[in-house]
Amino acid sequence: MTATLDTVRLDLGPRSYDILVGDGVLSDAGERIAAVTRGRAPIVVTDANVGPLHLDSLNAAMVEAGIAPSPAITLPAGEKTKDFGHFQSLMNEILGRGIERSTVLLALGGGVIGDITGFAAASALRGIDFIQVPTTLLSQVDSSVGGKTGINSPHGKNLIGAFHQPRLVIADTATLDTLPRREVLAGYAEVAKYGLIRLPDFFAWLEENGRRVVDGDSAARRHAVTVSCRAKADIVGVDERESGDRALLNLGHTFGHALEAATGFGQTLLHGEGVAIGMVMAFDLSVRLGLCPAEDARRARAHLAGVGLPVRAADVAGVTWDVDGLVRSMAKDKKVQDGRITFILANGIGKAFTRRDVDAASVRAVLEESVS
Ligand code: NAD
Ligand code: MG
């Protein structure tokens, strides 16, 4: 069977690549993988949840294209894997296989596996090729596209890394059928983000069809992933290293990051859940500053809540928030420049922009409202 396939191209001159999106595309992707690896086996890196579920179909696709798969490297699942210790053992395992400049890595998993594998590819022999096979909604619409790779340090998340673009991305929406619903919803926050940033028609489509995306309708999922990848590819294509428009992708992330930091970047609040709450705060802040109609903020909140995402910090069970701590944490964000926080605000649905001179009292008021 040949799966219905959308191809999104990320144009970056010699570093351009295709993102293949569709239900079942992995099964048909052997030839595309072989074209990158020149018919040889890539070194597959996966995690302990994803390997048992999806490694067989990847290997079957490669066998069909004449590739004899080599044993995969399986890392523990979860954010804790993105650390120095696991990076060291991953690098030693890769180098122990006697690699050459032409060796290709393949990341099969969510953003954790994509980020650490991409960074390994950027580092091994000063840079070898890699392929992304993202298996979470978040990684399909966000982390697998754009070339940010890296690991965490005790000083903060994603502080060690490199820009290193993949050679190919294979986003098979069928792999999402095994993803826990809470993870699907967390990824959905990033889907909605593209609508809120610059695609008002897509946001209106999501208001009609978002539930189908979350519930697993394959045509709706393909459309949502394709539009999201197109949106990210368009932005990265003009601003690969985040000196301008790429910052818009941080809508909701400065607030969300502070909430995640306060809850230890764990299961209490998933990244996408923090982003959902943070996007609502960004719209509320925009309204408070007189920049955005209240009706648009209401729509953003109603849609995210409607699919089942948290929209207020107070929605997060079992946490007592410390607003002063959140304010301090925001001031330490990676996006701070010359001591000023860059906020992503909006003039309405699909009309996001960056702003650096936001008064502290308004920010605090929005936080107070969200936690109470
Ligand atoms: P993840 O990789 O931890 O995956 C979430 C959970 O789902 C894990 O337990 C994983 O084992 C499991 N899983 C993955 N695919 C599955 C499947 N198909 N079926 C069942 N279970 C599955 O987390 P994530 O949300 O995919 O990614 C988060 C990471 O991505 C963070 O480290 C974040 O910093 C990073 N990120 C990077 C970028 C970037 O541009 N590089 C952008 C956004 C996020
Ligand atoms: Mg994000």
UniProtKB/TrEMBL annotation:
Keyword Lyase: yes
Record carries keyword Membrane: no
Binding site for Zn(2+): 190, 253, 271
InterPro entries in UniProt: Dehydroquinate_synthase, DHQ_synth_AroB, DHQ_synth_fam, DHQS/DOIS_N, DHQS_C
Cofactors, names only: Co(2+); Zn(2+); NAD(+)
Start and end residues of each 3-dehydroquinate synthase N-terminal domain: 73-184
Pathway annotation from the record: Metabolic intermediate biosynthesis; chorismate biosynthesis; chorismate from D-erythrose 4-phosphate and phosphoenolpyruvate: step 2/7
Origin superkingdom: Bacteria
Gene3D superfamilies assigned: 3.40.50.1970, Dehydroquinate synthase-like - alpha domain
Record localization: Cytoplasm
Major subcellular location class: cytoplasm
Keyword terms of this UniProt record: Amino-acid biosynthesis, Aromatic amino acid biosynthesis, Cobalt, Cytoplasm, Lyase, Metal-binding, NAD, Nucleotide-binding, Zinc
One GO molecular-function entry: nucleotide binding
CDD domains per record: DHQS
Cellular component annotations (GO), alphabetically ordered: cytoplasm
Note accompanying the cofactor annotation: Binds 1 divalent metal cation per subunit. Can use either Co(2+) or Zn(2+).
EC class name: lyase
Pfam families: DHQ_synthase, DHQS_C
Positions that bind NAD(+): 111-115, 135-136, 148, 157, 175-178
Enzyme Commission number(s): 4.2.3.4
Catalysed reactions listed for this entry: 7-phospho-2-dehydro-3-deoxy-D-arabino-heptonate = 3-dehydroquinate + phosphate
3-dehydroquinate synthase C-terminal domain residues: 187-336
Family: Belongs to the sugar phosphate cyclases superfamily. Dehydroquinate synthase family.
Free-text function comment from the UniProt entry: Catalyzes the conversion of 3-deoxy-D-arabino-heptulosonate 7-phosphate (DAHP) to dehydroquinate (DHQ).
Protein name in UniProt: 3-dehydroquinate synthase
Organism from which the protein derives: Azospirillum doebereinerae
Gene symbol of the encoding locus: aroB
